[in-house]
Amino acid sequence: MKNLTLNMDNALSVCKAIANEHRMNILKILSHGPHNVNELSEKLGLPFSTTAVNVKKLEEVGLITTELVPGRGTQKINSKNFDRIVIDLFEGDIEFEKNTISIEMPVGEFIDVHAEPSCGLVGEHDYIGMQDDPRSFYETDRHQAQLLFFKNGYVEYRFPNRVPYGARPSEIEFSAELCSEAPYFKLDWPSDITLWVNQTDVGTWTSPGDFGGERGFNTPKWWGIHNTQFGLLKTWKINREGTFLDGVNISDITISDLAITENPYISLRFGIKEDAVNVGGINLFGKEFGNYRQAIVMNLRYENQK
Fold first, then answer.
1. By percentage, how much of the chain surpasses pLDDT 90?
2. In what residue span(s) does the HTH arsR-type domain sit (predicted)?
3. Are 170 and 239 contacting, i.e. CB atoms less than 8 angstroms apart?
4. Quick one: DSSP state of residue 164?
5. Which residues does 115 contact at the CB level (< 8 Å), separation at least 6?
6. What's the rounded Cα separation, in Å, for the pair 232 and 174?
7. 295 pLDDT exceeds 50?
8. For 196, left (φ over 0), alpha (ψ -120 to 50), or beta?
């Protein structure tokens, strides 16, 4: 799946181009394969001249490409360039972002795990090891995992600590796509998923269910629709005011409680507590599964000492 990512400065022309029913229908038709203008005109039920004008508009903003190909003579064939358009509505503060360390951790790069069935690792093209066998989490190609799941247990990662010596961490943020783990999928299947940072419990999110029945945007076609397809993107943020889950304060744990500068790495653990009310497991998604093209992302902000 090929994405077009836009910011607020360059999104307007694309938005204007697709704010038209005929052009949207052209993109739908081209999703099934290349067409020339005559073919598009027939399928749309529009005059050739009207179709050509709309094709030109889409071509001008780069959403489609027109190529000359041999056939009965030479003909112009139109192809779609992108599957998805993403608009970034965040206008970053340059000075603020300059002191931000961003690291994306593949879901298969864990350093510790305890997984109880149902459990498994899934790569982009096939299972890694055997389904429902905890030994699969120790396979040498586990680093290629794009989805991991277990009914009970935990998985732990270690991010490199790149805070400059003498600087002071001010905020740390983790985001990941995850959901509960049920046999096949079950929309009503709550699970209490807890996050630990440097062995400190920073809060629990109760996932409402295990989502399937419709394919995730990035989920490979070989992965059956009856299996888990996507999760929800959740963000934990810890700063001097406390811990926040998707912007809502959930804990009094602050960044000073995490002892970041005292450790050579930053530990992150997702798991189900032994005393959890809802033991509904975890699905954790990589870039090639689910609805969000990301793995586990850490953003760590710091201040230079004056």
1. 76
2. 13-91
3. yes
4. P
5. 134, 137, 148, 150, 153, 155
6. 14
7. yes
8. beta
Q: Is the pLDDT at 92 greater than 60, yes or no?
A: no
Nearest to 153 by CA among 173, 176, 132: 132
Among 147, 283, 176, 159, which Cα is nearest to 235's? 176
pLDDT for residue 109 is more than 50: yes
Task: Identify which of 170, 149, 148 has the alpha carbon closest to the alpha carbon of residue 239.
Answer: 170
| 216-267 pLDDT per residue, tens | 999 999 999 999 999 999 999 999 999 999 999 999 999 999 999 999 999 9
Angle between helices 11-18 and 21-30 (to 10 degrees): 90
Closest CA to 272 of 163, 159, 114, 165: 114
Angle at 131 between CA 129 and CA 136, to 5 degrees: 35
The pTM of the full predicted model, rounded to 2 decimals, is: 0.73
**Both tokens assigned to 33:** 């394969």
Furthest CA-CA distance within the chain: 73
pLDDT interval class at 91 (50, 70, 90): low
306 — pLDDT class (breaks 50, 70, 90):
low
Q: Are 209 and 153 in contact (CB under 8 A)?
A: no
Domains, in order of start, for the chain: 3-86 (1.10.10.10), 96-303 (2.60.120.260)
